[in-house]
Specification:
about 240 residues, Four Helix Bundle (Hemerythrin (Met), subunit A), 4 strands
């Protein structure tokens, strides 16, 4: 028997809730709603031009996903970030970036290189214009394009899954101006390594960029107190992540 609700109002509410949840995910991932931030239902209802009913349905979805927390009498807040889990995820990403670089040395074609260079130019333009969120989006796209170009679907899938876990942390740390400039310089090095016919340094350049990003993200989250630090964290593991 079909479980599809027949109430048109309920269908519209669920449809709106899904759309609102998607928009809130982007706001959380890109740091517009940072970890620990209180979610103002009235403000968001006005911003999205919706009633509180679909908004609360969307928030319930995000609570179930672990992106948002809810406490009686306190309300909704963006969930803090688990540093222990983040360190572990970054450790894997460092290796995957380097692996993609090794595979790319044999598989990258001129069309893929041209597409990456075009995307990089757009990212540079966003940096020059101070468009931080647009820069961040292009940055993520470039990294996924590089991994996809390695020609290993399993690697691409694992990488995309792990990156979805660190997007929120990277978005929260994306306000650091110095790291923004450093990141751009590192991307210039990546593009130079891609353009080199031998691509000899590409794996190490990708790994170094990943490690530098992890180090800065973890440092910023620690300074700002926007993450849940584990009770005991091995100094060796933190070093391995950065």
């Amino acid at each position: 028997m079909s479980q599809t609700p027949r109430n048109p109002l309920l269908l519209r509410t669920r449809g709106m809730a899904a759309e609102i949840a998607a928009r809130l995910r982007v706001m959380i991932d890109e740091g517009e709603l940072p970890p620990g931030a209180r979610i103002d239902e009235k403000e968001l209802s006005l911003a999205f031009d919706v009633s509180k009913t679909p908004l609360r349905e969307a928030l319930k979805v995000l609570v179930a996903e672990g992106a948002v927390t809810h406490r009686q009498y306190i309300g909704y807040r963006v969930a803090s970030i688990d540093l222990d889990d983040l360190v572990s995820t970054f450790e894997l990403l460092h290796g995957l970036e380097a692996m993609a670089g090794e595979l790319l040395r044999k598989r990258i074609g001129t069309a893929t290189l041209a597409a990456l260079q075009a995307k990089h130019r757009k990212m540079v333009e966003c940096h020059e214009a101070g468009k931080r969120i647009e820069y961040f989006r292009l940055n993520q796209q470039i990294h996924q394009m590089i991994v996809d170009a390695a020609g290993n679907p399993v690697l691409s899938g694992i990488y995309a899954s792990l990156m979805s876990k660190v997007h929120r942390a990277r978005g929260a740390a994306n306000t650091d101006t110095l790291r923004w400039a450093e990141s751009l310089h590192e991307h210039e090095d990546i593009m130079a390594a891609l353009a080199d016919p031998d691509h000899a340094v590409l794996p190490q350049v990708l790994r170094s960029h990943s490690e530098n990003t992890a180090r800065e993200v973890l440092a910023i989250l620690d300074r700002t107190g926007t993450a849940d630090a584990p009770e005991q964290r091995s100094a060796g593991r933190v070093k391995a992540a950065g």
